[in-house]
């Protein structure tokens, strides 16, 4: 294993550790790191999508065993996200002959979504407090209107994830908190993870079909990330959330700003 590949293993270890400790989506951390390593944007996104699908599959099994998944909500989200991801992939396929244009679109979209993710990480508690404070009043919908909003939310997430590999974690969780303030946090998190697996799998395979995939790189990332997630999950809560989240938000915002501007 050469030095470069060791770097990918270490990157997987670090990202896995942070994800296990904070729950922040791996894509918002992994994809920028891959860009820093010199991986082109399209390959970075494609590789990270399958990386996410594989790593989150284990989480689904655990959450399913603990009855932490609302499959109805997962279904409504997927009804919007999977078709949106497919349409986004078709758009990228139309740019495939112009590699520079496709990479430019992905890079700029990545920067914007990173900035949004930074805001979601930084103001998550305030958003949750707002949603719970207004739960049950005219601010919230129910029945068919709620289902429609869930599908629309899924569609937005599907487009973002297929284009940038980011969004299913931090942004998706915040969106679900707003739509379903009465849903227990453990079920909300489990539901979002369950939704992320088919979405990232479909989007990842779509990118792979366009050649936006580095299978060797994927293997090295997994070698590092799996033990990283295990260790990080056991250290969750050791670092105060009030310190950890602002630091992550600033880091994501700086990366996003650099990519956009």
UniProtKB/TrEMBL annotation:
Record carries keyword Cell membrane: yes
UniProt main location, coarse: membrane
Pfam families xref list: TauE
Keyword Transmembrane among UniProt keywords: yes
Domain of life: Bacteria
UniProt keywords, alphabetically: Cell membrane, Membrane, Transmembrane, Transmembrane helix
Compartments where located: Cell membrane; Membrane
Coiled coil residues, start to end: none
Assigned GO CC terms: plasma membrane
Transmembrane segments: 6-26, 33-53, 73-92, 104-123, 151-180, 217-236
Annotated membrane topology: Multi-pass membrane protein
Stated family: Belongs to the 4-toluene sulfonate uptake permease (TSUP) (TC 2.A.102) family.
UniProt-recorded name of the protein: Probable membrane transporter protein
């Amino acid at each position: 294993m050469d030095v470069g590949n060791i770097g990918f293993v270490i990157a997987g270890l670090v990202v896995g550790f942070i994800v296990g400790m904070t729950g922040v989506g791996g894509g918002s951390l992994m994809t920028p790191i891959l860009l820093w390593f010199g991986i082109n944007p399209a390959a970075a996104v494609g590789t990270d999508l399958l990386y996410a699908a594989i790593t989150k599959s284990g989480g689904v099994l655990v959450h399913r065993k603990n009855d932490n998944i609302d499959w109805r909500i997962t279904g409504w989200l997927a009804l919007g996200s999977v078709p949106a991801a497919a349409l986004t992939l078709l758009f990228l396929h139309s740019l495939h002959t112009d590699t520079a244009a496709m990479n430019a679109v992905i890079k700029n979209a990545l920067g914007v979504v990173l900035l949004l993710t930074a805001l979601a990480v930084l103001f998550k508690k305030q958003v949750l407090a707002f949603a719970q404070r207004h739960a049950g009043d005219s601010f919230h919908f129910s029945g068919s209107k709620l289902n429609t909003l869930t599908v629309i939310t899924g569609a937005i997430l599907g487009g973002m994830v297929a284009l940038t590999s980011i969004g299913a974690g931090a942004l998706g969780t915040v969106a679900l908190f707003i739509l379903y303030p009465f849903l227990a946090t453990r079920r909300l998190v489990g539901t979002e993870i369950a939704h992320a697996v088919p979405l990232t799998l479909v989007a990842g395979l779509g990118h792979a079909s366009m050649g936006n995939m580095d299978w060797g790189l994927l293997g090295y990332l997994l070698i590092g990330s799996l033990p990283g997630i295990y260790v990080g999950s056991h250290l969750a809560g050791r670092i105060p959330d009030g310190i950890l989240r602002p630091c992550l938000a600033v880091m994501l915002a700086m990366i996003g700003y650099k990519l956009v501007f």
